[in-house]
């Protein structure tokens, strides 16, 4: 299962957000640095509004959503790249993730100490960015030393690595993320082998208080994060982690009612989960029958036969055809039979590229 790591400075609300994401209070949320030492891990259901209508259509009460794994990682401080605080452990934990959710504090609270003494989103983002870039710089320098030795013998792969490092290292030396460097597809493939922290796709979670959630356009702190995210072409999700953690105790309808009173149409937690899921390059196809309705996770661009293996290897091995109808077409038709009569249900071969929201029945023979 692919993983999203929740990172940030101490006392920005990472563990509170983790509690809200996992709908339980399993993470220790405390007003001091390093309340989280070992990374808490939670498997989180991906919100999918399509599943309940589909379940009603096929008359089943069993719904199985897609999931994504979140890690709540210890807070990072200045000097982490040199081992300050829990720096070495933080960096080791983030290496295990596939994408990063960076929680940035956008609320004032005299009862919650800020590790830098004052709330400043730009500075906080820069602190983490610089520490990760410095850690990557050390990795790049080691990789360069190895590639230079190999390149002397005429190794073409090593020479290609050096050319990519020539582009990446100046950015890292300047404290910028490797993902901001323009690379060709071939160069990006080479760079992936360096396992740099700053190449990981990132979502910014702007953690605001309840009043800011209701009046987002009036917050300079929030505006600062949104500008940073826009400059990086990254997503910024506004969330009140404390409120969302408290709302977990309410039924889903009551949570949404409360948020709507604040002028918020959807849960920030839901948007964050969906954002992380898609940032990981994942998508869902659906299966629907009397036994259950289920969302299956596959990488974007997956072919039908490979997708069949997500359900069972026997289905992939004995794949004949995929019977496919889009979710919207099926719901509009009201039944599989009507969808078939209207020509909305089609047969696809093993090379068919699966699309988000395909409702599929695989024909196979083993």
- Give the ordered list of helices and strands: EHEHEEHEHHHEHHEHHHEEHHEHHEE
Point out poorly predicted stretches: 25-37
Strand order of the largest sheet: 2-4-1-5-6-7
Sheet with the most strands?
A: 6 strands, mixed
- Number of distinct beta strands: 12
The Rg value, from CA coordinates, equals 23 Å
List the helices and strands and how they pair.
Elements lengths: L2 E5 L6 H9 L17 E6 L5 H8 L4 E2 L2 E6 L14 H9 L3 E7 L15 H31 L4 H18 L11 H8 L9 E6 L2 H5 L5 H12 L3 E5 L1 H7 L4 H10 L6 H12 L2 E7 L4 E7 L4 H8 L1 H5 L1 E8 H7 L2 H6 L4 E3 L9 E7 L2
Parallel strand pairs: 1-4, 1-5, 3-9, 5-6, 6-7
Antiparallel strand pairs: 2-4, 8-9, 10-11, 10-12
Helix pairs in contact: 1-9, 4-5, 5-6
Descriptive notes:
- The chain has 366 residues and is α/β, with parallel strands linked by helices.
- 42% of the residues lie in helices and 19% in strands.
- It is built from 15 helices and twelve strands.
- The protein has a six-stranded mixed β-sheet with strand order 2-4-1-5-6-7, sandwiched between helices.
- Strand 8 and strand 9 form a beta hairpin.
- Helix 1 runs parallel beside helix 9, helix 4 packs antiparallel against helix 5 and helix 5 packs across helix 6.
- The radius of gyration is 23 Å and the shape is flat.
- It starts with a strand and ends with a strand.
- About 4% of the residues have low confidence.
